[in-house]
Amino acid sequence: GESVGLHLPTLSVQEGDNSIINCAYSNSASDYFIWYKQESGKGPQFIIDIRSNMDKRQGQRVTVLLNKTVKHLSLQIAATQPGDSAVYFCAPGPNRDDKIIFGKGTRLHILP
Amino acid sequence: DAGVIQSPRHEVTEMGQEVTLRCKPISGHNSLFWYRQTMMRGLELLIYFNNNVPIDDSGMPEDRFSAKMPNASFSTLKIQPSEPRDSAVYFCASSLGLADTGELFFGEGSRLTVL
Known about the structure:
- The structure holds two protein chains of two kinds.
- Chain A is an all-beta fold.
- Chain A has strands at 4-5, 10-14, 19-25, 32-38, 45-51, 56-58, 62-67, 72-77, 86-92, 106-111.
- Chain A is 0% helix and 50% strand.
- Chain B has strands spanning 5-7, 10-13, 19-24, 31-38, 42-50, 53-56, 65-71, 74-79, 88-95, 105-106, 110-114.
């Protein structure tokens, strides 16, 4: 099965700085990867995904980098804002069984 | 669109009681998922349905847990009898199908406390 791990359980970042959340995976057959954001008291919310044939994808203030050589991906958030405080999950895209397995997540804490 | 609707939002019950959690997926979505979230174990997939049919229930902890989806707009997760270790936030999520995208739409969760 897929193993998804996160390097840091908690990340503290100064407001206005850039944030980088890292994620490692073990199954090189994953076709794509997904990032979710979970704010306190809410369910996770889809942020962005990246296909395995890409090494970078940009969204609004977020950038996903994929390094297939070392099986690592990261989520970069530019100019971090208080509203970015949340737990961030990475997950491999659904396999043939159509299910998404999440890791434990990284908590992003914004310092004033 | 109202999004995925779960009820109750909070439930406190005593050990041994039956608990029923309810979920209304987004209209038109054909896949429905039940997840459980705890500090220790993170977000765990319990079971998921496609077109109202259970596809994979390998994440269901034990026979005390059961889930049904009698129609496309309603699902239940039942725990009988409940135990303190079942205390968690239970999320329901729905999607159009995951063939092309991993976008799940989650409800706001049902926080269960078993005393």
